[in-house]
Amino acid sequence: MSFWTSEEKISIGQTKVSIPSENGLSYSAGQKIDITIPREIQFFQPKESYLSLDVEISLPSARKPTRLSLDEYIGGQVLIKDIRVYTQGGTLLEEIQGYNTAVSVMYDYDSNENIRNKRAMTEGTTSATSFYRGTDGSTQSDNVNHINSPYYVGVENSAYSDPFDDDDYTKAKLLLPLHTGIFQNDKIFPNSMGLRLEIVLEDNNIVFRQLDSVNKNNKLSLNPKFHSLNGSSAPDEWTSGSDSNVFYVARDNQNIGVDNFPFVVGEAIKFVNDTTANLSYNNASNMVIDTVEVIATADDNKGLIRVTLDDTYTNNGSTVFPLGSASGECYIYSANFDNGSDVGVLSYNPTFTVSNVELIVQKLEMPDGYKNQMNQMMREGGSMVYDFLSYSNYRQTILASDTVANINLPLNFSRAKSILCVPTDSTVRTTAKVLSCEDAYEYNEESTDISANANTRGSLVGIWDNLQNYQFNYNNRLQPSRKISCAKISAKNSIDQQPLVELEKALVQAGIQPRSFRAFQRNAVIGRALALQDGVYDCRGKSFSLQLEYTGTPPDFPKLFNNYVFHLRRLNITADGISVEL
Amino acid sequence: MSTEHFEIVPDNVQANGKVSYDKSGNPTIRIKIPDVERHLLAGTVRLNGKFQCFKNAAEDAPDADTAMRMTEAIGVYSVIDSLTFQNFNGQTIEKIDNYNKFCSAFIPVGGSKQDLFDSYGTTALSMPNFEVQRLSVVNNASANTFSIPLISGLMNGHNPIPLSSGWGIGGLEIIINLSPSSNVFFSASTTSASFADGFYELSDLSLTGETLVPEPAQLQQLQTQKQSVIEYNTINTFYQNINSTNAVLSMNLGLSKVLSIFGTITPTNFINNLVENGLANLYPLNTDNSVAKIKSVIWQRAGERFPFLYNIDTMQKDDNAQEFADPQIVRNFQSAVKVFSEMGRTNVSPENNRVEDNTAASLSYKLFTDGGSTAGIGVSYDHISNDGVSFKNIPLGLQMNLGLTSNNPHALYLFVHNKNTIIIENGNVQVIS
Prior knowledge:
- The complex is a heterodimer of chains A (about 575) and B (about 425).
- Chain A is mostly beta strands.
- Chain A has 2 domains: about 15-210 and about 350-580, Adenovirus Type 2 Hexon, domain 4; about 215-335, no CATH class.
- Chain A is built from 8 helices and 30 strands.
- In chain B, strands 1, 2, 4, 8, 9 and 12 form a 6-stranded antiparallel β-sheet that branches.
- The longest helix of chain B is centred in the N-terminal third of the chain and has 12 residues, at about 100-110.
- Chain B is globular and about 70 Å long.
- The chains are: A mainly beta (about 575), B mainly beta (about 425).
C-alpha cells in the first residue's frame, strides 16, 4: 500500500498492546525470558510486533574503561541466543538455536544503507559516521560511531578529564523484530491457542564489541595517529628511553576535536609502528589517558588534540616516530587487555543487564462477521491452516585438524526450501580475546588497513578458514554435480563466484533478500537452494550431507557448523487443539 | 484510448515571466488545466521552471562569502507554502497548507539518501550534502532548472482525473502560494548580514503532463454515467504551539478516515527568520539552545489512549543524559509514512536524527549531515485495511512531557494523512473527508 494510493479492504481495527515479561524484572547473560501472548488477543500482525527492551552495559571492576557496544551489525539481536515459540498449552511451534548467528546472516546479506540506518535507529546496531571517517585510505567501518551511540553518552568538544566509567553508560532502548518464522510472517496470526515465547540470553563473551578506531588488529589505519611530543609544525619523536606525560594527535581520521577522539579518559593505550609493527610500551603499567583537549595554537595554529597522561612514562619500547616519519608512523591503540607486551591476556569481563522487557503486539480486531464465520466453521469440525516459512538449526562440529569433513544432516522436512551452513569459529575465547581480536581469524588482507582485517565477532559468524571446496550429497546424488571451489575466497585476495551464486539462490529461497554481498569474506555462509521459485523439496527418507575439503593450507580453527534449514511449516488449528506439520 | 501531452503556463504571471514572493509582489501561481472531455493522468504532471537565488536587491548572485543556505533535503519544494487543487467552480478538492514543511518531513522519511542525490536531486535541486547544495544551487549565478511532481494525494493517487464538467470535476485549477524568502533561506553562520535582502525568483514556469483521450464509445458511456467516485489519500495540516513541560493538545480534526498522523517541531522564532531555518525538524530546544528532551508521548482518541494502549516513555525519561534518539519515537514517526517492517527507503539515520544541543560545543542542527535534521513524532492508525479511523466528531489528544523549562514557544505542525472521497454526480462535485 503506497502512501497516496487508496485501496478498499475489509476494515480491521488496529491497536498496539504491551505485554511485559513474566518471570523477572531484569535479566543477565544466560538467563531466560518468558513472555505470553494471551489468547484474548485473538489476532495479531506478527511482522509489526516486536520485542522492546532496555540494555545497559557495565564495565568490569578494577579494569581500565573503554567504549563498548553490542555487535555493530545486529545490535540487540546478539543478546538472543535461542528462542522457542510454544502455544500456551505447551505445543512447540518453532525452536531456533543459534538465533543470533542466523540473524547475522540475514542482516549481513539483506542490507543497504537505508536498512542499516533503520536498524541503527531502533535495534542498537551502529553505522559509519562522517564524524569519524578514515582519511588514510582505510576501508569503511560501521563500528566507529562513538559520537552518537545508544549505549553511552558522547563528550562535548571541550577539554575533559573526568574518567569514563559506568555512569557514562546509559540504558539503551532497543526495539527488536523477532526473526522467527511466525514473527516474520506478514499474514495475520490467529492466536486462538495463545503463544508463549522463551528467549535465552547470550553469554557475555559473545555480545560486546570495541570500537574499530581503537583496535590494533582490525583496520589499524582508522586509529588516531601520533603526531609528536611538541605539537609543532616540526614534530619530534618520543625516543626510546625518554620520558613524557603528554603527546599530540595528528588530525588524520577526523581527529580534529575532543568529541571526535575515540579514546576515553582512563583508558590504557600504546603505540604501534605501521611499518615495523614495533610496540612502544611500559612494562610496569600501560599508559593511561588523563586529559584530552584541543590546543588551537599547535602545529602552526592549525590545532591538534593534546593527550595528557596520568603520569610521566618512560618509553621503554621502540621509538614512537612522529607524523610523516620515513621510519614509519605510529598509531594509538587500546591496551586495556594487555599486560606489557602480551596482548589480550588480561581478563576483562564486562556484563549487560536487560530490563523493561515487553513484547509490543499489533493487536487486530477482525470484523464480527469474519469471526463468527470462523467460529462456526471450527465448531462444525473444520480446521484452519496457517503456513509460514521457518528454519531449524542442525549443528555439527569439526576439528581444526579435519582436512576432509562430511557433515550428515538428518533432515525430515516435507517442504524444505534451502539450507544455509555457517561454519563459526568454535575456539573458546575470553571476552578480552574477542574484543582485542587477538588470534582471531583474519578474513582479508586489505593493505590500506595496514594490518589484516580480523574477525571482530568471535563465534557469531562464519569463517572460510582455508576451505577449498564443498559439495552437497542428497538423494544419493552429488549436488551440484561439480565441487564448488572456495579457494580464492579462502585466499582472502580474490573471489570465487560460484559459491556466491549458490548462496544468493539459497538466500532468496530462505526469504532473505540478498541485497548486499559486502560481507562475503567476514561472514562465511555456504548455501544451497533445495527448490526454486515457489517449489519445495521433500527431505523425508533421504540422505543429506555436506562434504568439505580443507586440503590446501591447513585450517586454523575448530568449527561449529550451524546448518539452518529453511522450510515451510503448517499449523493445523481445530477446535480441539493445534498440530504442527513439518 | 490515446494519450496526449500538454504544456500549460500560469495565467497570472507578469510580462517578464518571473515570479517572486519578495520582488514581484506576486506570491501566487495559478495554472488551469481546462475543462475537456479527457482524463488527466495525474502521475505525469510536473511543475517546471527555473529557480535562481540573489543575495541582495541588486540581484547579485551569492558568492563564496555569502552565508546563504536553503533546506538541502527538499530543494525547490522549499518555495511552496501551500498547494491547492480546485475545480473551475471554486470547489476545493485538495489543499495542503505548510506544504514546504510537509515536504521537509515527508521526503526524508519516505525517500532515501540516494533519492536526494538522484531523483529529487535532479528534479527538485535537493542534495544530502548541505555545502554541495549551497554551492551548486544557491550560489549558482545561472538559473537552476527544475521539474517536480506536485506531491499530493490527487496527483500521486494514480487515479485518472476526469476533467469534463459533464462527467468529471469540471476543470482543475492548481494554486501555488509561494513562501517568503525569509522562510526559504537561512544563514550558514550566526548572521544573515551577507544576504539581508536575499530573495529567490522563479521563471519560465509551466505545467506539463499527459491526458487520456477516451474513444468515442467510451466517451459516450462516460457522458451517460450518473455517478463516479474517486478515492485518494491526502494531507491536512494542523498547527499548534508548545511552550511548557507538559504539552496537552486537543484537536477536532473533522476527518472520518484518518490513516496516520505525523508531526514536526520547530521553535517559532526560527520561522521567517533569515538566521535560522524555519523548515528544520528538530527536537524542542530551550532558550539556551539546550535540547528539551521528550520524556513521554501519549496519543489519545476521545480521551483514551489509542492506538498505543500504553504510554510511550522515552529513554530520556529514565536517564536525561541519554542523547540518542528514542527508537519508539523514531519508529512511530516513520511508521506514519510507511509500514516500518516494509520500509526499504528512508533517510532517517543516527547522523541526522539526534537529540543534540544546538551549540558549538555540541553540534548545531545546521551541521547535521545527510540532509539535515529529521526529528518528528507520529502514529499510524491503519496500515492494513486502508479504511482509517474516524475523528469526525471525536477529538484527537496528544500529551507530551518534555524538558521545555524556558519560555521558548515551539510550532508543532501535524500532518494528518486522511482518505478523501470525491463523488461526481450529474456534474456536481462533492468532497468527503
